[in-house]
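Data availability (excerpt). The following record was deposited with the supplementary files.
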Amino acid sequence: MTPSPAFQFYPTDFLTATSWMTPEQVGSYIRLQCLQWTQGSVPADPEKLARMAGCTVETIHSVLCKFDVIDGVLRNKRLESVRES
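Predicted structure:
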């Protein structure tokens, strides 16, 4: 089965989950979610993540709380639940 090129986006949930973030953090977070969707995960290396997200390492450190390390890579559990539904 070919993976879906898109995922469901729930604006209220997203706004609630990111209300404390700066615009740079929000942009980095959504970019990492898009990368996770297309690649299955994102690397656990903060420097590589910062390059992928187009932000600073400091910003990445503030966004990492939204991801869990699973098998040596990072995944956002909510996004994976969307993938499975």
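Summary of structural features: The longest helix spans residues 23-39.
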